[in-house]
Design goal:
disordered C terminus, Nucleotidyltransferase, domain 5, alpha+beta, single chain
Length: 337
């Protein structure tokens, strides 16, 4: 059957979420595709493909088709979208009145066009593209239609979007290619340098989730990490602690703090005063990093809160656009027919 309802797609570097009008978020899958190299056939998409990362034979490659919030592998992204749409609608095709999709505010026209093309090829009839930061603010239930300013910091897998919104639009923003993936890379580099131990992407993510933090916390623990010794090539394990991981994350966290300060500096003085009073809201999957709100509060002297469901904010914001819970219509943003 054909899928006829409006749809919102949060096409993220780490995860892709699909929002159906009237049903909410129906798909939440890792943005990973497993491909058979010899036949170029897609073998798995989402969680099943993510489980293959670092464990595939030479004939199979598990790839992340998005990099820094934009499309890096067109064919794999198209295959992933078709698969996820089929899961959500029961059909490989959909004839939607509107498809809303969020992109980083720093995306170029070429990158936006690539997003349009891949969604169009997946079967969409009309595509509307809006900034992720704006959708995230709506999903966090910030009253951005009013004259008072609100700041949202959306920390995803590939990018961090910082935006000040007022009167239903973005007043000032900053997009940097530093986010959750950067945290994982920093952990990997630290363990490689200090312990001469090579760990995989999944292990780095597990370390981040288990003992990773941006600020000291009570009952900090340790973790045994296994990998390959770079000296003799044999498997080896080391014990690391939370303070070490916090040190390894210092640079990407500093980059995010700089983006927040830059956005505040670009904001009109009256709106900056609003932000001091209203505070900063963190959204995105990587906003859940332990102690991140405390670190930002300490460095900016502005109260910081984490959205109730930070990883869902962009998708929920797209849903608000679809249901008309927004001052402007999404059509006022860039779109292609």
């Amino acid at each position: 059957m054909l899928f006829t309802k409006d749809i919102g797609i949060d096409l993220g570097t780490a995860n892709t979420l699909v929002y159906l009008k009237g049903k909410g978020i129906v798909i939440r899958e890792p943005s990973v595709v497993a491909v058979d190299v010899s036949s170029n056939k897609v073998l798995a998409v989402g969680l099943s493909a993510k489980e293959m990362i670092g464990r595939t034979p030479g004939s199979i490659v598990a790839v992340k088709p998005l990099r820094y919030g934009v499309i890096a592998d067109f064919r794999s992204t198209e295959a992933m979208l078709k698969n996820l749409i089929k899961k959500s609608s029961g059909s490989g095709l959909f004839n939607s009145a509107r498809v809303l999709i969020g992109v980083p505010s720093g995306a170029t026209e070429v990158e936006k066009r690539a997003v349009y093309d891949v969604v169009k090829n997946a079967g969409a009839k009309k595509i509307i593209i809006i900034e992720k930061a704006l959708a995230s603010a709506m999903g966090a239930k910030l009253p951005i239609n009013e004259a008072r300013a609100h700041m949202v910091v959306d920390i995803g897998g590939g990018t961090t979007e910082v935006a000040v919104a007022a009167l239903g639009d973005v007043v000032s923003s900053c997009s940097i290619k530093v986010a959750g993936d950067s945290f994982d890379e920093a952990i990997t580099a630290y363990i490689k340098k200090k312990y001469s131990l090579l760990i995989g992407e999944r292990t780095a993510e597990e370390i981040k989730l288990t003992i990773g933090s941006a600020f000291p916390y009570e009952n900090e623990g340790t973790m045994e990490v296994m990998g390959r010794n770079l000296i003799d090539g044999l498997p080896r394990s080391v014990e690391i602690n939370a303070e070490e991981i916090r040190m390894s994350l210092a640079q990407p966290l500093l980059d995010i703090l700089d983006a927040i300060k830059t956005t505040l500096e670009k904001s009109p003085p009256e709106l900056a005063a609003d932000i001091i009073e209203q505070g900063i809201v963190l959204t995105g999957g990587s906003a859940a990093l332990r102690g991140l709100d405390s670190l930002i509060t300490k460095q900016t002297k502005i109260p910081v809160t984490v959205a109730k469901t930070p990883a869902d904010c962009v998708a929920d914001g797209l849903g608000k656009c679809l249901t008309g819970e927004f001052l402007r219509t999404p059509d006022s943003d860039m779109y292609y027919d």
